[in-house]
Design brief:
Blueprint: H1 2-15, E1 21-24, E2 27-31, E3 56-60, E4 63-66, H2 72-82, H3 109-118, H4 126-134, E5 183-189, H5 194-197, E6 212-215, E7 232-234, E8 243-244, E9 248-250
Parallel strand pairs: 5-8
Antiparallel strand pairs: 1-4, 2-3, 4-9, 5-6, 6-7
């Protein structure tokens, strides 16, 4: 498995590189909560928190994912070029000085999708996000394995807000802050029981819904929210200081 990944990563980097993005090889993987969670067996455990089951093998086509969450500087360029509405927390509509490399927050799902489109990209599907998070640590809890996170692994469980991107160690695929820092919008509508009915290849989520899927946890959240399997959701119009995003590109889609 590891050897195959190494070959695919090398080929992706050599023949179809995307600046500032990480190549994620295609192939099959086990999606869903593959680690044990004793709380989930309790009679009073909330049913919505069982939405990361059943575990199923799915297949994804190869793709690229931004190496880090979109920064304030990157989003400010979009706001200026497209005259797009800035996040409401920007005073007088201007990005905060000295925070250019902090990941941008407080944008809606539509804002995030518009930015990705402007860059010739798209939001990743929920399945793509999970595949990227797992990297070579398939069936384990976190991007680095089953060990509980520390402040050297991710930004979480605090009150200070997000860190500048790529200040902490990268994942096995070379991704920065794939868990912690900010929740990340994905392309999919949320469906509690979707895993049982999803397509076996390149699933794109339900056709409609009330919410969009969020992944990864944030600077504010406890370790339970930082696992590669944990699912959350929000209305598409929600803006929050702990929600951001990164973009994806399908392999071979740009010449």
């Amino acid at each position: 498995m590891f050897r195959r990944w190494l070959v695919m990563l090398t080929l992706g980097a050599l023949f179809a590189g995307e600046a500032g993005m990480v190549f994620v090889p295609g192939g099959k993987f086990q999606r869903g909560r593959t680690h044990e969670d004793k709380d989930a067996e309790l009679a009073f455990y909330p049913n919505p928190l069982k939405d990361d089951l059943p575990v199923r093998e799915i297949e994804l086509s190869p793709y690229y994912l931004d190496e880090h969450e979109v920064t304030i500087a990157e989003y400010a360029a979009f706001v200026k070029a497209k005259k797009h509405r800035p996040p409401p927390v920007w005073r007088d509509g201007k990005p905060p000085v000295g925070r250019e490399q902090i990941p941008v927050a407080d944008m809606s799902w539509d804002d995030a999708a518009a930015y990705c489109s402007w860059r010739g990209k798209r939001l990743p599907t929920e399945a793509e996000w999970e595949r990227a998070c797992r990297g070579i640590t398939e069936k384990q809890r976190y991007p680095w394995g089953d060990r509980a996170p520390t402040a050297k692994d991710a930004r979480f469980n605090g009150l200070e807000g997000p860190l500048e991107v790529c200040k902490l160690p990268r994942s096995s695929l070379g991704l920065c802050d794939i868990v912690g820092n900010l929740w990340e919008w994905t392309a999919d509508y949320y469906g509690r029981d979707y895993y049982a009915e999803a397509a076996a290849k390149d699933p794109k989520g339900p056709e409609k819904g009330m919410y969009r899927v969020l992944r990864g946890g944030s600077w504010f959240d406890s370790p339970n929210f930082l696992t590669c399997a944990h699912r959350s959701w929000a209305r598409a119009g929600e803006r929050s200081p702990n929600i951001g995003f990164r973009c994806a590109v399908s392999f071979g889609s740009r010449k």
